[in-house]
Amino acid sequence: MESAVSDMLEYSFRIIGPSPVSMPMSRLASYMAELARLMGSSDSVHFDRIEDKSVSIVALASQEDIALISPRVRGASRGDLSADGASAFRKLNELLSDDGWHAEMRLPRSGEVIAFPGKARTSVALRSMSQTTSIQGRLIRLEGAGEMVKVGLEIDGQLTARISLDAHNAQKLATHFHKFVRLTGEGRWKRDSSGRWSLESLTASSFELLNDEDLRDVLLRLGETIPPGSGKDIVAAVSELRRA
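-> structure tokens emitted (244 positions)
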């Protein structure tokens, strides 16, 4: 048994604020339950001890499970709502926020410290939403052999590949390769801990070809359609509309 324990590494979840004698046992049990959910590998993770000064819940995990547990904890801490353990990470921060504390966990081997800000993290709730969204750019990639095809657009010199389109429309879209297009459909948006929204994915249901004509040519053609001497009248009409 001693040999088996010596082969295990420690995860120490340090709650900064209380002491072992000031924390009720029932509250400590709530933290331990959520910590077990966060770490996963329930058959391989074992409680070891509570340390003094601050309340440090020390858990032991086998060396083989480190490769599963550490990425799980790290991914949950980055605000990815789909990550394994994300709900447990959020619940731990809610507990800390209610108690006015914060915490940290040091990952074995790497020594990386994962912060649990408590109130600072939960003051802006992490959430996601879906709504009709349009995105436009130059078509530079189409790939996939299933019912849904991945679409890549070049936007401001960067590849955006978070778009999917049904195969039927993708066949039509392919005829406009390297052209500027606009795709519209259901966009999934997420908000990070600082309140910024970003587009996570777009399931497009339609597209349209955009006019990529040079702006100078457009202005020259527009100038040809305006009768000589009517420029002042147009400016006056626009000014009148602004005052309305």
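Residues 127-209 form a domain with the OB fold (Dihydrolipoamide Acetyltransferase, E2P) fold (CATH 2.40.50.140).
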